[in-house]
């Protein structure tokens, strides 16, 4: 029997144009902070006479992240209420409005309000697009799309950093106009993505989990959310600290810092493109353990690196780990989330992602102040290896639990993609 859970729109069969639209929607989230970073010095100079200008100018790159962390748990409820497609389009319009507001608003406080609106838009985009991917795709097809989305985000991040820097050289306000791409992407979202009406609620099977609003969250989802937060702390410690190492310790120019960071970003994208292949070889716990092990090894090399060449090798290893981690965690949550509350879990995933980004400098900077940059990398390496061991052990425990469950195989086979799957269809 097939039914349609609340908050999911009726869907047409998944196609190439809607897959491309969902992949591009994922790149919008990368634009949120990276695009305006090169414009911060110009903003600081333009408002030099304002009170607390140093703090407020730097908050432009973080305010949206705080808004995302606070709003994302509610974004899942909103998506379930209005439907995936409507929420996605609303998010894109909020993204365009809030993001571009820096091009015309008169002072820093009002620009920060615009950045908060941008954060709300990112919350809706991530939550609704992830839920829609889960509704439209299964098994290997879902893994392929999530890998392409992560890769597009990585490649787009490099382009946007370079483009933002070029536009900032013209005028810092011009940089904010890039966010209008979110409004432009709303057009193919309206044309190619399925939806249009709110579906009815699905009956719940006896004993089924009630999701985030219920008493118990599946252990696998808890593990994925924790891995997302820890992975983002590790990931954002690189752009926060590596430029100081490259320029201050190794005496290289700032352009070298950008090139070194681009190596990691490109590696992450290339590995993420092949996520469907890796997903067929190992389960979620094993891939998470392997990813954190690669991150830990990369940080070991960073801690010992005597120069730029070895530094690049370290970032290649770390980029490999991050390319495995991000699509794996997205797929893990979407695969285990009950269909009726899938959007709420996608909202929690968004919260975990941006909470890790927000915490990265707060966690690492005190250690850097006490030990220095490279010893701090050694501390992060030890933590990443411990996390890898924990997920390896968690995977073995999960496998034993599945083997002991009556009537269930020890390792469930991945679901085959169903060309007739439609958004909002749940098997009960």
SSE topology sketch:
Layout: E1 2-3, H1 16-34, H2 40-46, H3 53-59, H4 63-82, H5 84-100, H6 108-136, H7 139-170, H8 172-175, H9 181-192, H10 219-249, H11 254-273, H12 275-281, H13 284-304, H14 308-336, H15 342-371, H16 373-404, E2 426-427
Antiparallel strand pairs: 1-2
Compact summary:
The protein has 16 helices and two strands. The chain is an all-alpha fold.
In terms of per-residue confidence, which ranges show pLDDT below 50 for 5 or more consecutive residues?
1-14, 196-210, 408-428
Q: What is the distance, rounded to the nearest whole angstrom, between the alpha carbons of the first and last residues? A: 6 Å
Helix content: over 70%
How would you write the strand order of the largest sheet? 1-2
Q: How would a crystallographer describe the biggest sheet?
A: 2 strands, antiparallel
The count of helical stretches stands at 16
Average of the residue pLDDT scores:
80
Strand count: 2
Cα-based radius of gyration, to the nearest Å: 21 Å
Q: What structural category characterises the helix and strand content? A: mainly alpha
Order of helices and strands: EHHHHHHHHHHHHHHHHE
Can you tell me the overall shape? globular
β-sheet strand percentage: under 5%
């Amino acid at each position: 029997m097939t039914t349609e859970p609340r908050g999911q729109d009726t869907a047409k069969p998944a196609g190439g144009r809607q897959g491309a639209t969902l992949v591009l929607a994922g790149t919008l989230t990368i634009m949120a902070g990276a695009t305006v970073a090169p414009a911060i010095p110009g903003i600081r100079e333009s408002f030099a006479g304002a009170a607390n200008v140093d703090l407020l100018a730097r908050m432009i790159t973080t305010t949206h992240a705080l808004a995302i962390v606070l709003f994302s748990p509610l974004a899942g409820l909103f998506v379930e209420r209005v439907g995936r497609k409507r929420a996605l389009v609303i998010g894109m319009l909020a993204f365009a409005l809030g993001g571009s507001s820096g091009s015309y608003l008169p002072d820093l406080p009002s620009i920060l309000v615009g950045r908060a609106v941008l954060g709300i838009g990112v919350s809706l985009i991530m939550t609704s697009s992830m839920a829609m991917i889960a509704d439209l795709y299964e098994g290997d097809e879902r893994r392929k799309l999530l890998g392409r989305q992560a890769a597009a985000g990585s490649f787009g991040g490099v382009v946007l950093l370079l483009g933002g820097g070029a536009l900032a050289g013209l005028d810092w306000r011009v940089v904010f106009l890039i966010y209008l791409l979110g409004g432009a992407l709303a057009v193919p979202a309206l044309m190619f993505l399925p939806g249009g009406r709110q579906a009815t609620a699905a009956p719940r099977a006896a004993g089924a989990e009630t999701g985030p609003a219920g008493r118990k969250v599946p252990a696998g989802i808890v593990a994925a959310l924790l891995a997302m937060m820890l992975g983002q702390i590790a990931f954002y410690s690189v752009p926060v600290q590596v430029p100081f190492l490259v320029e201050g310790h190794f005496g290289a120019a700032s352009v070298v810092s950008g090139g070194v960071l681009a190596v990691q970003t490109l590696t992450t994208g290339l590995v993420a493109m092949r996520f469907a292949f890796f997903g067929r070889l190992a389960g979620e716990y094993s891939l998470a353990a392997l990813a954190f092990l690669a991150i830990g090894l990369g940080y070991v090399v960073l801690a010992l690196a005597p120069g730029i060449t070895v530094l690049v090798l370290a970032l290649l290893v770390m980029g490999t780990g991050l390319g495995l981690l991000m699509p794996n965690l997205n797929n893990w949550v979407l695969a285990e989330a009950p269909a009726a509350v899938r959007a709420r879990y996608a909202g929690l995933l968004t919260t975990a992602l941006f909470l890790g980004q927000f915490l990265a400098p707060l966690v690492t900077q005190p250690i850097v102040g006490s030990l220095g940059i490279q010893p701090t990398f050694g501390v992060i390496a030890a933590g990443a290896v411990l996390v890898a061991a924990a997920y390896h052990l968690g995977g073995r425990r999960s496998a034993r639990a599945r083997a002991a469950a009556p009537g269930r195989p020890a390792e469930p086979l991945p679901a085959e993609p169903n060309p007739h799957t439609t958004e909002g269809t749940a098997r009960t």
